[in-house]
Design a protein that fits this description.
The protein is of the alpha/beta class. It contains 8 helices and 9 strands. α1 packs across α8. It binds adenosine-5-diphosphoribose.
Length: 250
């Protein structure tokens, strides 16, 4: 597969790129044991997305926390980065990758060693008080008495990832736009491209002249719209072939 023409083309694009940005979705964490939201085994096949709506949280903090604990916190506690996360971190160290923009809240890119990571939908590693805005680093003890409360104003603490109806974290949003404006190459991995404004970022990169490589076992909203090179397959498998190809050409 390393000699597959599409892999060879991807290797060439990466080597010739002056600025490469990785854009990931839930699919890159599937091989770490974290279910996606849509498609086979997706969370939304089993749960109503309304439990992740900010109004539901404000009106039912305990019920919402119980579901978030079950579907995210308990899941993330036992999950490790997979080979795709690790190879992306290696490519950053080797100078082939400049930044990662992720829609994921699982912190697996950082755990794998990636440094320049923008979390477009926030992170489970922090909690925020919905009254006074105080930020807390997540600790397991906060899950003992739900909903957790602020030690400053006794307000309810919320996971510091965005719920439906909330805005995108400003710093991550601006950084993602900056990446889309300067990247020569966007590598889009494991996302349906169903959710805005996240899905607008690869489209902005395309409009700014970036080449788009897409890694996904299934076609997405991007594939027939902006993707220049579609690599059909699982993230760990394709990233491994690309990594091997880069090593072979050094
Ligand atoms: N390797 C690569 N891609 C994979 C793999 C894999 N092993 N397994 C599944 N995929 C792909 C699926 O084909 C699908 O395109 O991952 C994608 C998962 O799609 P979604 O679950 O829609 O994930 P994502 O696009 O990240 O969702 C965006 O929706 O609900 C919100 O906030 C949530 O961040 C999430 C956003």
């Amino acid at each position: 597969m390393t000699n597959h023409p599409k892999i060879k083309k991807a290797v060439k694009l990466i080597k010739n790129s002056g600025h490469t940005t990785i854009f990931t979705g839930a699919g890159i964490s599937v091989e770490s044991g974290i279910p996606p939201f849509r498609g086979e085994g997706g969370l939304w096949e089993e749960y109503d997305p309304y439990f992740l709506d900010i109004n539901y949280f404000i009106n039912n903090p305990l019920k919402s926390w119980e579901l978030n604990k079950k579907l995210f916190y308990s899941m993330f506690a036992d999950c490790e980065p997979n080979k795709a996360h690790r190879l992306i971190a290696e490519l950053e160290k080797a100078g082939y990758v400049d930044a990662v923009i992720t829609q994921n809240i699982d912190n697996l890119h950082q755990q794998a060693g990636s440094i320049n990571v923008y979390e477009f939908h926030g992170t489970y590693k922090e909690l925020i008080c919905i009254e006074c805005g105080k930020i807390y680093n997540f600790k397991e003890e906060y899950l003992k008495n739900l909903p957790p409360r602020c030690n400053k104003c006794n307000g309810v603490l919320k996971p510091n990832y965005i719920f439906f109806g909330e805005g995108i974290p400003q710093k991550a949003y601006q950084a993602s736009i900056d990446e889309a404006e300067q990247a020569d190459l966007f590598i889009v991995i494991g996302t349906t491209g169903e959710v805005t404004p996240a899905s607008l970022i690869p489209k902005l990169a395309f409009d700014n002249g970036a080449q788009i490589i897409e890694i996904n076992p299934n076609k997405s909203n991007f594939t027939n719209q902006i993707t220049d090179l579609y690599l059909s397959g699982k993230a760990t498998y394709i990233m491994d072939k690309i990594h091997q190809g880069l090593q072979d050409t050094n």
